[in-house]
Structures are given as C-alpha cells and as structure tokens.
C-alpha cells in the first residue's frame, strides 16, 4: 500500500476494548492494520491527550499492527481526568499490561511525541528487552529548564508571544503569579462539590486558559478553527489540563535529568532510535533533542527546519512516515 499524501489512509480498527488496571482505572485501546503484523505502540502526548484514528497515518497497515492506547484518565479511558493512581510509573506498567493482554512478545516500535517521547524513553529504560526500535518526536524529559521554557514569564515564548503569556498569567490572582504552575495546580486539582456550578465553571475556565496557551504556540501556522473546536471540548480540556499540571508539579516523578543519565541510556543503546524535532518548537525546547542525541550518539536526529512542535506540520509528518517506512523493512 502506498502512502496517501504525507501518510497512510486507515480503515476502522479491527479490535478495541477496555483493560482494567488496578482498582480504579480502565484503559481504552484500539488495534489497526495487519492483525499479525509488526506491533507498534503509539504513545500520545499531554499528559492527558488522547488517541484517534489520525494517529495511525505514520504506519503502513500492510506491515504494522498498530496499537493505540489512551493513558490513565485520558481520552476514552475511565474514569476521565482521574488523578489517583496516575503517575509515570503507573503508565509504564500499563504498557506492559497491555502488551501481555494482547499477546505481544516484543514491540517492533514504540512511537511517541512530546510527553509520548518521555513515556517511550521511560518504558525503554525500564523494559529494554521489549522494545525493538524507538521513533521520538518533540523530545521532552521533564527537566526544570524544559518546564520553564514556554510558560516562564521571561522565557523564549514570552519574548515571542507576550500577549499570550499575559493572557495566561492574567487568569491567576496577582499574588500567585510568581509561581504559575502552583497556582494553576490549585485551580485545576481542588476537589469541588458535584452541585457547585460556580466552582465547576471556574475550573473549566482555568483549563481553557492553560490549554489555549499551549495550542496557540504549538505550531508555526496554527489552525485557528481547529484550536477553537478543541477549546470547546470540555472533557479534553479538563483531562489535558489537570493531568499536565499534576505531572508537571511532580516533575513526572522523575529525578532531574534522570532520562539523560549515562547509566540509564546504557540500558537502551542497542535499540535503534530516531529523533525528529521541530527547529522552532516552543513547547519542548530543541536543545533537549540535541542533549539526547549527544548522550545517545547511536541515535539519528533530524531537525525539521520548517516546523514547531506539532506532529501535523507537513515536513515533520513526512519525515515520521519516512522513518516508520524504513523501520518497517527491518527486523528487531
């Protein structure tokens, strides 16, 4: 099957279901492509994002068995926007649980962008024998410098988008603006009574403010209509904002620089790894992709000179399809 434009056309999933994990969560998953094909796990961004059939465009369905997973509290997984029992290491364990549930001995590929790249690195370092290859986009390792990259009031994004940063900061009380992460965390994670409509709207507006900034700075040429649609999607708004801020204030339960340490990268040096990074990414700083490549020189790094953060930018999408086509011809 030949690529359609920058990616592959997909049919309906051949399988979908819910996998119970722990006492609280049920994970929603889908499978596309070739039932006995080379298995690839797609790890979405966020935290708190979700999967959709559009995520399958990178993978030749005549070769790949494509597994999409909505992470805890995200997408169609239940319960929505749930913070309990929801850490990086729960998510790593979930990938293993899903692999075993689907009878997959080893992933041919783990594919992750943005937060998905973080999770892919965590999984590969925890279970290197279960990963055949890695395709990573918009690298994020949750270091302090990365968290301050876009939302700091005097960071690069503030210099380029002072109006958007001002809107983001203005949503929180003036006395809390020195630490916007902590302020948004209080707004988004506080428990509210089910019948308190005023508190619910206050939390929803905070979620809109949090997400509006990220969406507006996520690509070089934002699709305004699409962004506006997302900002009216209440379930996505709450899950994405609540889970992101919960993970960010906890540094994703990682030690500073943990994923880039030699002793951790040594566990995965045998795994073929390709890094695709937008040169003008204002969500995940390009230096992180460079730092990963320098610490893992066995990897390949492609800087996309006409792209920001979004995987949907044409040159980024084209490169990701190309890399997945290359890996489809190999055995790991």
From TrEMBL:
<feature type="active site">
    <location>
        <position position="281"/>
    </location>
</feature>
<dbReference type="GO" id="GO:0004177">
    <property type="term" value="F:aminopeptidase activity"/>
</dbReference>
<protein>
    <recommendedName>
        <fullName>Proline iminopeptidase</fullName>
        <ecNumber>3.4.11.5</ecNumber>
    </recommendedName>
</protein>
<dbReference type="GO" id="GO:0005737">
    <property type="term" value="C:cytoplasm"/>
</dbReference>
<dbReference type="InterPro" id="IPR005944">
    <property type="entry name" value="Pro_iminopeptidase"/>
</dbReference>
<keyword id="KW-0031">Aminopeptidase</keyword>
<keyword id="KW-0963">Cytoplasm</keyword>
<keyword id="KW-0378">Hydrolase</keyword>
<feature type="active site" description="Proton donor">
    <location>
        <position position="309"/>
    </location>
</feature>
<keyword id="KW-0645">Protease</keyword>
<dbReference type="InterPro" id="IPR002410">
    <property type="entry name" value="Peptidase_S33"/>
</dbReference>
<dbReference type="GO" id="GO:0006508">
    <property type="term" value="P:proteolysis"/>
</dbReference>
<dbReference type="Pfam" id="PF00561">
    <property type="entry name" value="Abhydrolase_1"/>
</dbReference>
<dbReference type="InterPro" id="IPR029058">
    <property type="entry name" value="AB_hydrolase_fold"/>
</dbReference>
<feature type="domain" description="AB hydrolase-1">
    <location>
        <begin position="38"/>
        <end position="311"/>
    </location>
</feature>
<comment type="similarity">
    <text>Belongs to the peptidase S33 family.</text>
</comment>
<dbReference type="InterPro" id="IPR000073">
    <property type="entry name" value="AB_hydrolase_1"/>
</dbReference>
<feature type="active site" description="Nucleophile">
    <location>
        <position position="114"/>
    </location>
</feature>
């Amino acid at each position: 099957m030949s690529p359609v434009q920058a990616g592959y056309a997909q049919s309906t999933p051949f399988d979908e279901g819910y996998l119970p994990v722990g006492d609280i969560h049920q994970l929603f998953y889908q499978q596309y492509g070739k039932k006995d094909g080379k298995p690839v796990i797609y790890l979405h961004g966020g935290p708190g994002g979700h999967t959709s059939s559009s995520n399958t465009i990178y993978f030749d369905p005549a070769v790949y068995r494509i597994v999409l997973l909505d992470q805890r509290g995200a997408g169609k997984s239940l319960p929505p926007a749930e913070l309990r029992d929801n850490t990086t290491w729960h998510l790593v364990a979930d990938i293993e649980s899903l692999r075993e549930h689907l009878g997959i001995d080893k992933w041919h590929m783990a594919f992750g962008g943005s937060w998905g790249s973080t999770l892919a690195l965590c999984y590969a370092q925890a279970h290197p024998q279960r990963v055949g290859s890695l395709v990573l986009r918009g690298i994020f390792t949750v270091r302090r410098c990365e968290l301050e990259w876009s939302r700091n009031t005097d960071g690069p994004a503030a210099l380029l988008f002072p109006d958007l940063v001002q809107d983001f900061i203005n949503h929180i009380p003036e006395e809390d603006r020195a630490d916007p992460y902590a302020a948004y965390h209080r707004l988004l994670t506080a428990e509210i009574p089910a019948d308190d409509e005023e508190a619910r709207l206050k939390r929803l507006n905070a979620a809109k403010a949090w997400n509006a900034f990220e969406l507006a700075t996520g690509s070089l040429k934002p699709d305004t209509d699409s962004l506006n649609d997302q900002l009216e999607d209440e379930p996505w708004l709450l899950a994405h904002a609540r889970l992101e801020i919960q993970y960010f204030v906890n540094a994703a339960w990682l030690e500073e620089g943990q994923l880039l340490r030699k002793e951790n990268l040594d566990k995965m040096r045998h795994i073929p790894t390709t890094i695709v990074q937008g040169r003008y990414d204002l969500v995940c700083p390009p230096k992180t992709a460079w730092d990963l490549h320098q610490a893992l020189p066995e990897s390949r790094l492609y800087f996309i000179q006409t792209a920001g953060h979004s995987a949907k930018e044409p040159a980024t999408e084209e490169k990701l399809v190309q890399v997945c086509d290359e890996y489809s011809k190999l055995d790991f």
